[in-house]
Amino acid sequence: MVEQAEIRVVHQGGSNITFREPAISSDSRFLLCASGHNVKVFSTVTEECVQELRGHTDLVTGVLLRPSNHLQAYSCSADGTVRLWDFTDGILIKTYVIGYPICSIYASASHDGVIFIESVSLYSDKYGNRNSLLAVHLPQTAGQLVETSDLSAVLSDVSANPATVAFGRAGEYVASTNGVQLQIFFFKKQKFSLKENSCSGRRNTFTCVACHPTDDCIATGHEDGKIRLWRNFDQKREYTYRTLHWHHSTVRALCFTPEGSNLLSGGVESVLVQWRYQQESQQDFLPRLGAAITHIAVSPDGALFCTSHSDNKIVLIQSCVKVSSIIQGLVKGEAVQTDLMVDPRSKALVLNGKPGHLQFYSLQRDRLLFNLDVVQQEFIHQEGLDQFQVVMATLDGAGAWLATVEERKQETVEAELNLKLWAFDEPSQSFVLNTTVSTPHEVRITAVTFDPAARGQTSLLVSCGRDGLFKAWRLAPPAHPDDGGPSWTCDFVSGYHGLTPQRCCFSADGSLLAVGFQEVVTVWSPASWELLLTLSQPPGIIRDLCFGRLSCSKFLLGTTSSDQLCCWNLLTCSLEWSTSMEVSLLLADPLSDNMAAFCHQDGNTDLFVFKPSEPRPLFSQKAVCSGRVSRAVFAPREVALESCEESSQWLNRSQLYFLTICIPVFSPPSQLVVDDSVAMTPFQLLLGKRRPHHQAAVEDPAVRPRLTDVSLLLQLLQSPAHVLPAAAALCSVFMEALLGVATETSDPEEEEEEDSDQEMETRATRPERGLLETDSADPVLSRAQVRELRRVRKLDHSWFSSLLDS
User: Fold this and answer.
1) Domains of the chain in sequence order
2) Which of 185, 163, 162 is closest to 172 using CA atoms?
3) What is the three-class DSSP state of 723?
4) What is the pLDDT of residues 48-97, one digit of tens each?
5) Rounded Cα gap, residues 169 and 185, in angstroms
6) Where is the WD repeat-containing protein 75 second beta-propeller domain (predicted)?
7) CA nearest neighbour of 470 among 536, 520, 412, 509
8) Hey, which of 23, 72, 355, 785 would disulfide with 66, CB 3.0 to 4.6 Å?
9) CA-CA distance, 536 to 519, in Å (whole number)?
10) Least confident of 358-362, 475-479, 526-530, 779-783
11) CA distance 10 to 670
12) Alpha carbon distance, N-terminus to C-terminus of the chain
């Protein structure tokens, strides 16, 4: 029966660790970075997350070290609080309540007891709300929760990008850029601003700023790839600047080293450039860092640099410009084109990550295990350049083989396709390229899948293409002894009436292959490649195909573009049932006979878990997440649960992970909060819900509903014996339900009818009541007993005789 349960979606990993500039501890042992609602502390030596600071209730928007104590750090959040942490032990020291969403946080050693935050301006002007830089005086009071009200405005009209604000000369002044305007505020109440006009054909907009720690020098980055060094800005109209140019595109990050001897810059070229201060013609380069640089940070002692990248990666670099370690998060590209997969060996989540790669990500440890370079070409960060991308991938049942499809789209000619087969190498614990098939289909590939039951030399792979063909690829021994090991060759090619195959899937035992040709489903025998049958269905192109598992292996399910979910019985070759619902994703649990369907409706996604053999779902949840679920996968648990709740038994052996456009990776928990509005069943009508012992005495057994429906009785009598309650618990309530025990509460119409009957009965029996009292006859029936007898006389028991006759 349907359980209307309230599900709590638990965040499992994949937060952005490069959202804000990280902070490096004074001894260069730890790195702190904002990660979703938390702050993660990584070891710079082992790359492991050693602490996770939890407490914020919204997105963490900044992390920095406390200038007066190198073992403590501040964090700010959109929840309007600033928290002070002992990050080595993971202890929350104090929470300062600001009351306004905070975009970023800054601090200076010369301003003790004061932090600077960027927040939405408290006052609006004709241009609406603008961000302001505010000075917050932290009260020195006892208690962990402190209300902060001493705020003062420093700068108005500040850019929302934290890289556009920097403090110079130990906090004597602050520089801020916004658009084409540079503001410099001296804390001795001197303010200077200049505006650089954009010339024709030039892009001089400010993108980032950095201040020299000892000299009056400000470095600014621009959209045109140039860096400008501003000097003499403390004099009116006598400022000068020098232009440095190496980057061919926008400069995204600038940072001076603590002693001021070098200036570091980075951009979309994924190259870290080190400029010698006052000798800018001498530069050092660290190329091929993998993705665009978004932030640059330096440790207080200058021994360690780190760069944040657009692929959710932090690179730790020694001062000699040499990479020492890499902290990699879940790569979230423009779109996840491959399906979500679980590696049977490492239990890692497999999906495409940075361009041309597959990432193996451990959700248990929330870290990347390794990247597999599929394309094996250097990715060039240039807009409009056509390059190979990994669009499909699939693993076999044992994790011994991996198939990938890479594609390069071109506007003038047909897309280039490569099908690659990878074998798992035990010594290196990674995948090694075995076979490359150039142009496996004339046009784009629509589906690719392994036979889950095949192993070793019997491994089988099927691919479908828009050329109207599906092809079977088998692992074949080498033709000559000198050719090396086995390789993959094409074993069978077929089509169906010139239609385009859209989807394909194998049955659990590999004995059947289903291929959806537009509006027709065909079922083939992989042993003989004989077409066994074709299945009809309501109009619409097949979007998903999935075989049932275990006890439901005789069913084949599919979704269509006309928003139909169909279930065919392969034994009778007929449509078992169908329902109208917009299913965006359909998948089967490999360890049970359960299936999950994600339905998109009104901007939200609903989740239904069901068995194909049962007409009603085991579990349903409306609006399980916002947006459309693009990918999902059932992942086996390391240790099976022993839940007795019917609504959560489908989570005992597997976990359901799903991915949306807005949300990283999520999983329903094993314990579900079930609402009270459950559907009525025959056992619910008989026994009701289990209540605490102290409520059992108050409950009146005559208040239970009656079983008067033949279908409910049939369902009750035909239930398997092993699911029935004890006979002693059923006998009395079952007989009472059959006899129709009266209730103390009744409908208003029945009350009026009974009241009128009672008045007539009272007038008729009033003279006799005196005789009964004098003669000491048998006691008179109570009003409740009279109503009960009257109700029994009115009951229609014909349904019981029809049940006995059947």
Assistant:
1) 18-157 (2.130.10.10), 159-328 (2.130.10.10)
2) 185
3) helix
4) 999 999 999 999 999 999 999 999 999 999 999 999 999 999 999 999 99
5) 12
6) 340-660
7) 520
8) 72
9) 8
10) 779-783
11) 10
12) 26
